[in-house]
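Weekly modeling sync, notes
Attendees: S.R. (lead), two postdocs, one rotation student

Agenda item 3: backlog of single-chain predictions. S.R. asked that every request posted to the team notebook include the full sequence so nobody has to chase files. The rotation student volunteered to paste the first one in as an example of the format we agreed on. Action items at the bottom.

Example entry:
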Amino acid sequence: MHRYRSHTCAALRKSDVGNTVRLSGWVHRVRDHGGVLFIDLRDHYGVTQVVADPDSPAFKLAETVRGEWVIRIDGLVKARSEDTINKNMPTGEIELYAQEIEVLSAAKELPLPVFGEPDYPEDVRLKYRFLDLRRETLHRNIVKRTQIIADMRRRMGEIGFAEYSTPILTASSPEGARDFLVPSRIHQGKFFALPQAPQQYKQLLMVAGFDRYFQIAPCFRDEDPRADRLPGEFYQLDLEMSFVTQEDVWTTMEPVMRGVFEQFADGKPVTQEFPRIPYDEAIRKYGSDKPDLRNPIVMESVTEHFAGSGFKVFANMIASNPKVEVWAIPVKTGGSRAFCDRMNAWAQQQGQPGLGYIFWRQEGAVLEGAGPLAKNIGEERTEAIRTQLGLDEGDACFFVAGEPAKFYKFAGEARNRAAEELNLIDRDRFELCWIVDFPFFEWNEEEKKIDFAHNPFSMPQGGMEALEGEDPLSIKAYQYDMVCNGFEIASGSIRNQSPELMVKAFEMVGLSKADVEERFGGMYRAFQYGAPPHGGMAAGIDRVVMLLVGAKNLREVTLFPMNQQAQDLLMNAPSEATPTQLRELALRVVPQPKKD
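Predicted structure, as returned to the notebook:
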């Protein structure tokens, strides 16, 4: 028999009854039932119930073991009685009668419990992550993550993609976040950067003729943490294709992503044909470029019904500024004054003056609109709004007014808030879509200049003619995102492979041709030696896994994450460099002055 085990803790079945076996694992918990000890023994694969009665030669040692001790047990497999079968575990029809126990490793008193998985402070969980990872839910999430990545790899290989590894030490790149810099010892005063994404390298692979590239790529961004984005590093399914339109990218990757979701959705419905929603339409209907389509609320413009109306706040805004619009947020089943007042109070907590509303109720034979706005605009306009939005008795509508560019985010948050409050969202499904036709440029209010709205290497729609002759803020890009349940899970574009067009685009954001040659010299040179039309995308693996396992936070699907302060509490990183290390790198740490 093997030194440590003949079976795993998930392997034994009723067919093994009568056999003597050997198991090794962690003591999940110990229960004393009238002098008979029951030990749940756990390993990576599962749990087996072990019984030690007073007649067993192993009983005396069994009395000493505690939670998370690592032990070896030899014993006889017996069938459980009918009334003690546990149908919730694969080994629930048998139990192991202990004959010999060996303690392989004792455990000190635990800083956090493993069994039962009670809520525990995150700093303790991260400092003792090796214990946290023993917890069933987190352990299962990490295993599911590896399965999802393996499935992605398989699907990409089946459609002709090959995996190529790109460099980790590279040059700084404008991906929209801060770089992690790595000082060079050999070239003192100069720095490598960890890649925010393999963007330039994968485009260079297309120029080099490799046609279909993918990679499970580590990416590094020095940005503040939040629930759907970890500080430090994350992983993405990165890919690029040659001689393609954006339609080709969509039709290639939609079946891959749909298949991954269907494989791991535990039977929940998954969108079959992903809607393609222009960015402007998404903003207007949902107040977001990553809409949760499980939310049935769709916003509409009702400006005409308030123009010249008795509700002077909106009417005067419309009259004085042609950019002003009034958007309606129609909410089925929201027609109670209590709910409307809660929404209004929530809006004020967000720093808004309030949230105007109308709700409809039956008064005798008449369906009438109620609330201050209904009284101000009158029955005819109120009825016109109800008819346009398809509302009925027991429904409500909220209104936001101003320049859409300034209020659309709040309107989108109000849409989400209303659906959450009334439980209108079907949480047992995955709704996916493409958001397309993103703006190429945006206005940087802080620096008072034009900036790239997304990937600076995207192809502008209309090409050079658009860059030279159109309002920059009106130009769209061949840029697209994949969205699921309110999360952006992938982003991509058709790339700009023309050196002249590349220089022109960067000149419009204030960089000269010399800047382009210095900062993106590799791509700029490559594009002058025969660059194929190409495009691709990158899907965020962490977010995909988070959605599929139903986690609320990326730290629940990541092995060794940092905390909210971008610190690795387990390894105590970042840490100070030694004087010798700094001297070799010709660096000196300059203390920041303390803020008053």
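Discussion: group reviewed the output briefly. The CA atoms of residues 26 and 70 lie 5 Å apart.
Action items: rotation student to repeat for the remaining queue; S.R. to check formatting next week.
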